[in-house]
Amino acid sequence: MSSNQPPIQSKKGFNNIDRNVWILGLVSLFTDFGTKAIQSVLPLFLLSVLGANLSIIGLIEGIAESTASILKLFSGALSDYWGRRKELAILGYGLSAAIIPLFALANSPLWVLVARFGDRVGKGIRVAPRNALVADVTPTEQRGAAYGLRQTLDTIGAFSGPLAATLILLISGQNFRLVFWVALVSGMVSMFLLVKGIRETPSFEKKRSKLIQWKAFRQLGRDYWVLVSAATLFNLGNFSDAFLLLKAQAIGIADAWIPLSMIVMNFSYMLSAYPLGLLSDRMGRKQLLVVGFWLFSFVYLGFAWVKQPQPMWGLFAVYGVYLGMTQGILLALVAEITPPALRGTGFGLINLVIGIILLPSNLLAGFLWQTINPQVPFLLGSLLAIAASLVLLLGVRNNS
């Protein structure tokens, strides 16, 4: 089947974007409301309530992201093999919602590790099938817009969650656990939308005889593997946002206001994701992705040297534009350089590689922060982003 046409055309929404993309965007909105509300207060909760140090926070973030990421490959490959995406998405989103009470009940960093691990396992299960489902129902010429729309809806949740967390902390006298219980309600809403709203795409290809086939990796092509290499190098210096929040605290922003930094970041992300996705449909994805890496490098230089709260808010805003310029566009580029029957595998594999590299990335960031100074992790991330942009610019031939 041609990669230029989706195998199914269901009801269309605004700008001819498929109904499934809208529903998946709303599911992401409510899921990220809860997830980002939790993440916006979790480093402070670990430090001030549970007594964790920076090395432990780095270890928790690294293990949670990296260990769970192996499921992104298998869930993507399974969705290709099985020919069904929705059930895997339900399993992944459901696990992330079910694990939220552990945050509220945690009395040691180990509980938080278990909860973060469970949440990331859920993400590992759902991400590749969800991204492949978007590609399945979207023509090539609309993929930048489709992924941009889903990211925009996702980001509405990502900035409203920290906003709710800020209000809860101010009203309740910094009751972190109440934030976690509110997040649980949002997770339940996302599950209802997913179960009731998504229409499964029919099997688009004859099912393979094996779940994982090594020849399938070869069929992904040279451009795909160069893109994976660039993403690996980039993410070695792209550590958890928890360190950005700790930087905000270190320069004097009060704990109750720190979640607002994620609101600023995600608001600019929301405003930029869809128009930049549309722009990538017209001028090419690789070029915008390269510019996004350069923007990241600039912002990390700012985080390295900033010493006052006022410019910190501007850095968070520009960081959100970097997200809008890279996250959806990277997915659209993966969709275009992988064969239709291997999209789940392609999404899963690149997520697996990125996830694995996040463990050494976060451990290294925590180590450098504590043993040298907080500037060094950001300077390293800035240099690696420039190196990754050169790999992408010179190595990927597809200019879509």
How does this model look, in words?
The chain has 400 residues and is an all-alpha fold. It has a single domain, classed as Up-down Bundle (Growth Hormone, Chain: A). Helices cover 78% and strands 0% of the residues. It is built from 15 helices and no strands. Helix 3 runs antiparallel to helix 5. The longest helix has 31 residues. 55% of the residues are buried. The N terminus is likely disordered.
Entry keywords:
400 residues, mainly alpha, Growth Hormone, Chain: A, 15 helices, globular
Give the SSE map.
Layout: H1 19-49, H2 54-82, H3 86-98, H4 100-105, H5 109-136, H6 143-172, H7 176-197, H8 214-219, H9 222-236, H10 242-250, H11 259-283, H12 285-305, H13 309-337, H14 343-371, H15 375-395
Helix pairs in contact: 1-5, 1-6, 1-7, 1-10, 2-5, 2-14, 3-5, 3-7, 5-14, 6-7, 6-11, 6-13, 9-14, 9-15, 11-12, 11-13, 12-13, 12-15, 14-15
Give a short overview.
This protein has 400 residues and is an all-alpha fold. Helices cover 78% and strands 0% of the residues.
